[in-house]
Design brief:
Blueprint (H helix, E strand, L loop, with lengths): L12 H5 L7 H9 L6 E3 L2 E3 L3 E3 L9 H9 L3 E5 L14 H19 L4 E7 L5 H11 L3 E5 L6 H10 L17 H11 L18 E6 L2 H15 L6 E4 L5 E2 L4 H6 L7 H4 L2 H22 L5 E4 L5 H9 L4 E4 L1 H4 L8 H9 L5 E5 L5 E5 L2 H8 L23 H9 L23 H8 L13
Parallel strand pairs: 3-11, 4-5, 5-6, 6-7, 7-8, 8-10, 10-11
Antiparallel strand pairs: 1-2, 9-13, 12-13
Amino acid sequence: MGRKSGICKRKDRQAEFWPCAGLRGREEIMEQKESRLKALKIGQLVAKRPVIQGGMGIGISLSSLAGAVAKAGGIGIISTAQIGFRDPDFEKNPLEANKQAIHQELKKAREIAPQGIIGFNIMAASRDYGQYVKEAVRAGADVIISGAGLPVDMPKFVAEAEAENLPESVAVAETADPGTKEAANAAFAAGGAAGTGTDSTVGTNGRRTMIAPIVSSVKSTLVICRMWDRKYQTAPDFVVIEGPCAGGHLGFSREQLTAYGADTECVSRTYHQAEYDEEIHGIIRTVKEYAEKYGKEIPVISAGGIFDHEDVLHQLSLGADGVQAATRFVTTVECDAPSAYKQAYLDAGQEDIVIVKSPVGMPGRAIKNKFLERAARGPIPPERCVRCLDRCDPASTPYCITRALIQAARGNLDEALLFCGSNAYRCERVETVEEVMRALCGEENARESVFGV
């Protein structure tokens, strides 16, 4: 991995932007460009800046980053992926260590942003997914975003955890057998949340936890909305669309990435953005159908390759209500990643960013390094399994993703998997979170300070 070489030149994005300004039109986008962007409303939650900071694990988006984003008027997201890896008892009991860390990290983030909106990203592929969702609700999460698989039963887990906080007189879910469809539906009914279009106030923070699936296609959107509708008579509170330029695990097959031109060494030149824009249009139409059925607003958040204000405006022009960005926040002072991890982003050229096969069973995007070179030569047997994934065979896995990501969080880059988005090569300096938020939202005087690593 060498210092940015500039081998791949980016396309003229300005020439392509306006032809794609479909649903809302050029005039409205120009008005947004000249003024502050509209606030993002999710149920009773209102983010002054329509930016969600994407979850990054292991240990990259914890309390420091999430708290800073929430303080800056966005929505801060803590990743629960092996969140308790620093606990002395993590090796012995990773589940309990992770559950304790969920409470600890949210508490620390709240201290940074007492009035901010803070939540969790929880991988649906996690072995103890349901327990992590419940623990996040018990801790007082404002939102939960779930991807890396379809979070089919997230409504049930949230409802059961919220039922624990209901007064005994209204906790009708207790009359049904725990874990059943009836129990989940009863809990939702007690909170006045499912199918009513109203917001319950049964969470420990006085607001019902808002939940969102991560989708990448019209097909996956239909699947999750239909299942939530049929099984739990509810719809998402918001939806996150993660496109092919995102970092970490991707909701696309390798063949789909190739078709979109998103698996090359020069994604900025080969990516077929207009084609995926049409997919976004279709997802938004699908979400609107369920919003109408349940009589509520379901904001759509677009993610994947969001790096600057032009990216934000483009997604808003397609009909999105806000954006989710992750890579841009890695090289901030407040990011929980070690300096060596941030420096890897600063050093990476576009040709250093590659598609890898993850033990999760999905493609992922990461920075080339010695670890990936070693993994390409053959399996790296895990030293010990902490049972992090629902479907993982230690005997056949190409490497232990938990170990590789923990090494990244500790700054041991030669032994680490360095997840990143397609625009990581555009990171050129360490910024503050406030500075990034201003830049994304197109506010004047975005540049406040420059820090060296």
